[in-house]
Amino acid sequence: MMSVASTTSNASSVPTDTMQPALPVGTDPEAALAILEVVDGAQAEQADRNDRQSAELQEEHADDAAVASMHDKATLMRAQAWVDFGIAVTSACVQASSSSGDVGDASQNAATIKSFQSLADGSLSASEQNDDADVKGDQAASTVAGFAVQSDNQAMGDAADLVKAALSAYQQYVTTQAQTQAAALHRA
Amino acid sequence: MFLTVVSHTSPASSSASLLGADPSTAAPEPQDLGGFDDGLGALYSAICDLQQQGVTAGKALVLQNEGLAQQDQAALQAAQQRAQSDQSTSGGGLLGSICKTVGDVVSDLVHLRIGKAWSDGWNDLGQAWNSPHFWSDLGKVLTDVSMVSGVASEVAPLLGPLAAPVEAVAQCTTGVATAGQALVHFRTGEFAADAQDAHANATQAQDQLSLLATREQQALSDLGDQSQAQQGSLASLVQAIETNDGTSLGAATFRIRG
Lengths: 188, 258
Description:
The complex is a heterodimer. Chain A is mostly helical. Chain A has helices at residues 2-10, 29-98, 103-187. Chain B is mainly α. Among the domains of chain B are: 2-82 and 212-257, no CATH class; 94-130, no CATH class. Chain B has helices spanning 2-18, 36-85, 94-110, 114-129, 132-155, 163-257. In chain B, helix 1 runs parallel beside helix 2, helix 2 (36-85) runs antiparallel to helix 6 (163-257) and helix 5 packs antiparallel against helix 6.
């Protein structure tokens, strides 16, 4: 996994400042323009590549957070199972101990246990709902980051097209210039 | 032209070092070059080497990603199987588990295999304990038992002399059913939690598979762009060589005529 990222970032690891030549604005303005466009395109591609890496990291983090929330919910479900079991056993014990006693005390104990059970169930269910909401939020964030990755890919393609167009225009200019000079020499 | 090629060699030499190749063999040193023709030829050779290294890097990348994808695929299938095995219809049912346990134990006892009867019975009980279907069936049965015992408890005072024993049996049965239902609730809750864990693991494996596919696609796209740029450089270089040859030929002809 890491080697993939390192392979993709090899092309972008070269600092653009060190490759930037001096602009021959006075002697060859067309070449200067082409150089400017190429440098601009390369820098834009580098920026888009960085944005894409950042968006990929965000997507990965959002996916990890969603999975972590799912595991949290599983932990809560397990805790709820234990709590329900404990309350049921306690309720049975209290019922058994108070079956021969006062009816008023028995109903009071049952009501107390029932209210405690409702409290525990409500609290755990609320936490589970929170985890569900976290999962959906993280999945939405992951989707947004995925769209950002696609957008950055498109922008990288546009930047590369700019570089190609600049080089193509300069090549055409040089060819036309050479043909013109050849024709002039031929006439002379 | 030389600047362009130098800028291309940097990432490719990184890729070459990544793959274990020796980048110093890709192109000769500039001071070893003779004339301008030699320089252009060396550049041509270097770009061809770069293209070959790009192809090799792409192949290595695809191979490596295939291995990782197989691991993630196996993890995904394992998680899906685990989630499936935690469903309430998975495993042996109540009646089937009881019949199997009784059948195994009785068969072992008939053949006087006491130790095996114990181990078989223990194994069958373990399978029933871990079977969601068993607990689901048991929960339904206990609900029915609880309802019947409740009715019996209500009807008991009408039975005259039998009222007391029927009431006692009904209450005892209700207690046992309630305790059993608590255990059923506990076990089904654990199965649901396990299924949720397995679902989370499956989601994680699926995310990793998607991420791997995306990164492979991007890396191959980058390599394709790099190859296209090298093709363009080669075309320009060929044109430069032809122009150089034409110029040299023209100069020589001019000298001969002069």
